[in-house]
Specification:
Length: about 220
């Protein structure tokens, strides 16, 4: 057991209870947003469907992440396995997010290129994650997806005044703040650490992406 693991907060038999709780809240929000975005309607769009997929993957990742954080470090094999599963699912978040960009910000050949890039990036991510299942790998992969959302949203906002773009841009910026908090390990309290604060910021970003996604139309 690593020295840091020995000092992890515990509540009863649960390790990192606040991190588990915030992960569960993220999962609930993500599943609700996925259902609302994916629900068939007269205004449904493929872009919105891809974003619903990203929300669904986010919810699954949060559930597995909660299990990983709640597992005692003494059970190294289970904790490591759950963490690896969490990392793999996050690759789907990035791929489906880029898939959404392909439909709300591109057409024709450009759309095909973006979708191909999403698929290639996902394969590359799975390879890297197998070798190095670390948060830095996850952050780099998701950062690329967010950068593409930002570029696509800014272009659509400037050229076409497309609805929902301001919300998507806000979601990217809030996610950037969350990434800085996580990277710098900013904590408010021993029992509300950088993971917990990151999760709360993620909730805000999820809401912004949901609001933007609800307004998406295909190009």
């Amino acid at each position: 057991m690593a020295e840091g693991d020995a000092e992890l907060p515990r509540w009863g038999g649960l390790t990192e209870p606040m991190t588990v709780a915030t992960d569960v809240v993220i999962a609930v929000l993500a599943f609700v947003f996925a259902a609302r975005l994916g629900f068939p309607s007269a205004e449904a769009s493929v872009a919105r469907g891809w974003l619903a997929g990203a929300m669904l993957a986010t919810g699954i990742s949060a559930v597995v992440g909660a299990l990983a954080h709640g597992t005692s470090p003494a059970n190294d094999a289970l904790r490591d396995g759950l963490w690896r599963a969490t990392v793999y699912v996050t690759g789907l978040i990035g791929a489906t997010t880029i898939g959404s960009v392909a439909f709300f910000a591109a057409q024709g050949t450009a759309r095909t290129v973006i979708l191909a890039f999403a698929a290639i990036k996902l394969v590359g991510f799975m390879y890297r994650a197998t070798r190095r299942p670390e948060f830095s790998v996850v952050a780099a992969d998701y950062g690329i997806a967010l950068a593409m959302v930002l570029v696509g949203a800014v272009i659509e906002l400037v050229r076409h005044r497309a609805p929902g773009m301001t919300w998507l841009i806000a979601g990217v910026l809030v996610s950037l703040v969350g990434g800085i908090v996580q990277a710098r390990r900013v904590a408010l309290h021993r029992h509300f650490n950088h993971n917990d604060l990151y999760h709360v910021i993620q909730m805000v970003a999820l809401y912004a992406f949901y609001r933007g996604g609800a307004l998406l139309v295909d190009r």
